[in-house]
């Protein structure tokens, strides 16, 4: 396996022969990453130079943007012959992203058998079980012998994505069991499939969200999972490589969304794409910032009397934000794995609040000591100590309850928890600290 | 598949018969999750009631804490017979976590063949390729016929974790190729393996980090990856189910570490565990908070003259923090996928800075208008507009460069980027805004 550098790639692009020689030594997925930044001329050359099969590999391994670019340089008839080397689920992914006109034209050019399957698959949302399933699985019948089944496997193994698990169906295509190829290889030739099949199969319906599918596969260590309709008839299977893609996708989404970034964005996004994807989140946060600002403004008189408050108040809110993010992250992670009800987990909430008191007291005492040495006022030190505990309690409470509440409202806790939690720690943090300062103002004045 | 509720579990725990009847209907992994909070008496009962094989399933699916608890109720001889139903890599995981004394005692009780393998596997760090590999793979020779190989597969398929891929070795156990079972099923019985094998195999050495292994498997859509030593001899294979666990683990780690949380912590952690894991991060952040506080203190005179600054300055730093987190998240994500050099990506940095100007101007103009209506001072509005653009430039610059720099220093960008970026946006944000205010103080005074 050759590592691709931009120099090697440029050398290879000199002419068709050098490129084809280069192609043999690289993995298509590496090439797909390396050509992302080439200009259209080079992309067009690659499409012309490669034969249908290698071109199909390259398209399969390209990301959405590159797929669109590649397919724009391939005419409809060529694209159809490239499709011959692809699994149906990949074809659907590709034409699903094409402009509607071209999508329709391509489907109309297909053989009627293919047309039916593709149309069927296109019905399912891209991120559902139906959207990621493949129709290339091996189905056998319960009354077949092992020998008959092995013969069938030999015939279609080449076109099947999974051969380790065979799906047993009845005459109406209802899924009634599965057989591990291991057991079949070990069994007698004349044995019936019904005697070696496992009839408790974990399956999903096509509407199920891909995240749920990934959770099942990861939890039960499956290598594939069948998709069945309401009647129990098998529609397709989802393979573990697609599940890995889903897991990576969903985690990235969660991680980026917690930071207010869209999953679609990466280093190669254009300026206008980045603006469109990031500015709205900043605008929402501006609202939060003003809420905090209004709170401070309420105490303008107090700050006027003791200007040292302006330099110390941000410590309280900053620490509240950090502690709140910690609590929230733990909750978001647990919610991604399982249902959490407050009723069954009130002890965890109590622990979280105790933790807030301890962490608040620990950071509060350090802060109080430093503040005392900076400003020489015991009351200011005492106030910041109390405010720190108070705001960490706010952070623990909101960090715990906000994700739970969003989940209950069927919102994604990963997306919007941050904003609610930091609004709470900012607004209430300022309020607690400056409110206490106002109460004790006679002890603070003249600092 | 039965859903497990605490009521059903309590019912089942009445006596052995009811528990065994209950066990048949549940998945071991679900049971393992459900019994985490049971007290020791119940855990002990379960260990006594279950036979070796179901007990081995339960232990395999338990998390580290529960494994330790379960094995504390199983004596050495029983544990060894439970191990008979497990893969070697799982046994190693379990005894690796036991107290040293017990670990040694168990190994000494093993048959010498097993002893050797277990000792060998224990040498590798838990999070390396060697630490997650299994020794249950199928090896065949290049000069064997297809018929011979199929016979071999039949014999050992039952004990092998992967049968879809067969590994071809020479007489010194060096890995020289692999065969897809599909091709073997389709080939003639008398054909030699050398004629159908693929001799470009992607493999890893045992010291390689598990994250790197996961990246290879996910990138090249593998279902297993062989582990070879320096000489090229095969030591074991890593299967896709373990890779999924690694991916989930590593992503969770990144996500939690960005928020200053240890991966080990969850809702069931005790108060003292949580304190130990979260307080250090808060203390580090306290340092940051004081840096920002000192910056504000430098401008105490300015704020004394125009107290409105204290309510508006946090808008500038808050927005800088949000924008910086966005940029940083994108970089951390990309760095997890590939190497990024500044030299090849300076255009992306320029775009990021342009984006900062646009986003800064957009949020800045909104802020300026609101501030103008709140305080009626044109210069204050102008200053906050300029400061917003300035601090978003800081956020873009640091959000981009900090993760790159940390990676270059071989530190994990996911862990410590946040603290450096927010320190920059806090300190420089206050500095820019209050510094401008100081310059224009004559236009602001008397607000």
From TrEMBL, chains A, B:
Entry's Gene Ontology cellular component terms: plasma membrane
Record keywords, A-Z: CBS domain, Cell membrane, Magnesium, Membrane, Metal-binding, Transmembrane, Transmembrane helix, Transport
Topology in the lipid bilayer: Multi-pass membrane protein
GO MF: magnesium ion transmembrane transporter activity; metal ion binding
Compartment annotation: Cell membrane; Membrane
Domain CBS, residue spans: 133-195, 197-253
Source taxon at top rank: Bacteria
Transmembrane segments: 279-300, 306-332, 353-375, 381-406, 418-441
Zinc among keywords: no
NCBIfam families in UniProt: mgtE (TIGR00400)
Binding partners and assembly: Homodimer.
Primary role: Acts as a magnesium transporter.
Protein family: Belongs to the SLC41A transporter family.
Name assigned to this protein: Magnesium transporter MgtE
Organism name: Absicoccus porci
């Amino acid at each position: 396996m050759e590592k691709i550098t931009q120099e090697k790639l440029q050398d290879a692009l000199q002419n068709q022969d050098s490129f084809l020689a280069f192609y043999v030594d690289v993995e298509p997925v590496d090439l797909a990453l390396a050509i992302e930044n080439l200009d259209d001329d080079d992309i067009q050359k690659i499409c012309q130079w490669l034969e249908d099969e290698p071109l199909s590999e390259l398209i399969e391994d390209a990301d959405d943007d590159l797929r669109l670019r590649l397919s724009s340089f391939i005419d409809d008839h060529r694209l159809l012959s490239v499709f011959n080397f692809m699994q149906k689920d990949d074809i659907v992914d590709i034409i699903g992203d094409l402009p509607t006109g071209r999508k329709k034209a391509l489907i109309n050019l297909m053989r009627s058998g293919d047309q039916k399957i593709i149309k069927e698959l296109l019905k399912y949302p891209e991120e559902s079980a139906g959207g990621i399933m493949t129709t290339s699985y091996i189905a056998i019948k319960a009354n077949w012998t092992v020998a008959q089944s092995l013969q069938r496997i030999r015939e279609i193994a080449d076109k099947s994505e999974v051969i380790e698990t065979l799906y047993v169906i009845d005459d109406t295509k209802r899924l009634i069991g599965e057989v591990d190829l291991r057991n079949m290889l070990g069994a007698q030739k004349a044995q019936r499939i019904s005697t070696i099949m496992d009839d408790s199969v974990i399956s999903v319906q096509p509407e199920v969200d891909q995240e749920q599918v990934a959770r099942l596969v990861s939890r039960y260590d499956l290598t594939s999972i069948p998709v069945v309709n309401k009647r129990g008839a098998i529609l397709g299977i989802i393979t573990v490589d697609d599940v890995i893609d889903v897991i990576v996708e969903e985690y990235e989404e969660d991680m980026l969304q917690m930071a207010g970034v869209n999953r679609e964005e990466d280093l190669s996004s254009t300026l206008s794409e980045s603006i469109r994807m990031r500015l709205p989140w900043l605008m929402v946060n501006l609202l939060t910032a003003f809420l905090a600002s209004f709170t401070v403004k309420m105490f303008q008189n107090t700050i006027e009397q003791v200007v040292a408050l302006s330099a110390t108040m941000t410590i309280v809110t900053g620490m509240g934000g950090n502690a709140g993010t910690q609590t929230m992250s733990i909750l978001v992670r647990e919610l991604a794995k399982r249902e959490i009800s407050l009723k069954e987990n009130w002890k965890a909430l109590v622990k979280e609040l105790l933790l807030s008191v301890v962490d608040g007291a620990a950071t509060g005492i350090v802060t109080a000591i430093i503040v005392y040495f900076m400003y020489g006022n015991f009351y200011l030190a005492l106030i910041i100590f109390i405010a720190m505990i108070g705001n960490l309690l706010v952070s623990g409470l909101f960090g715990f309850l906000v994700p739970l509440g969003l989940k209950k409202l069927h919102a994604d806790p990963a997306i919007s928890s941050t904003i609610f939690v930091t609004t709470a720690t900012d607004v209430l943090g300022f309020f607690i600290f400056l409110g206490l300062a106002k109460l004790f103002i006679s002890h603070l004045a003249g600092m």
